[in-house]
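Methods — Computational structure assignment.
A single polypeptide chain was analysed. Its primary sequence is given first, followed by the predicted tertiary structure written as structure tokens.
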Amino acid sequence: MKSYILTGGVIHPDNIHITPAEGDLIIAADSGLNNAKVLNLTVNVVVGDYDSLGHTPEVDAGVEVITVSTEKDVTDTQLAVELALARGSTEIIIIGGLGGRLDHTLSNLAILEDLADKRVRAVIEDGQNRVRLLRNDSTILPRSGYTYVSLLALDPLCKGVEIEGVKYPLKGAKLERKFQYAVSNEITGNCCFISVRKGSLLIVESRDLT
């Protein structure tokens, strides 16, 4: 099952194109309920302490509302992720969560590592950036409206890094966390191939907004 998690913060709705299938789970984390409305998505569950929303959520009949204390050990986004996992999700799409406060952005990116440990496919996007994690594996990335693709090492050293079908290809490269140079590449064909033999990479797709 696939879950869509709407978080708070700025999104760029014209660049977000998602079509949930029947049976998918749509969760709003706190003020992510506002972003769900912007995207015209009907949520199944709202979860959070609602400090960002500013009030108890007003929802349609049949929408589940889960309220937690403001004094808690995890973010509302993490709560939504745990809920999605508990209900059987094998793929999670987080909408938002990449702009605004840096602490929240970094904690959301850490969620990708946790989900990779659990072998759950995951991506975070806000319409300007889209981020996923690749660990000891390879993937094909289709060309899309995102102009740039960057590879960022999460481990001290990532080995055997390859990227093909781009302006600046790499083959058997080493990427260090303290020296990130594989930034602002561009896909030149219909897709690109990315591989890392050992280590974890963040694959970041970005676009300029004018």
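Note: The CA atoms of residues 97 and 105 lie 6 Å apart.
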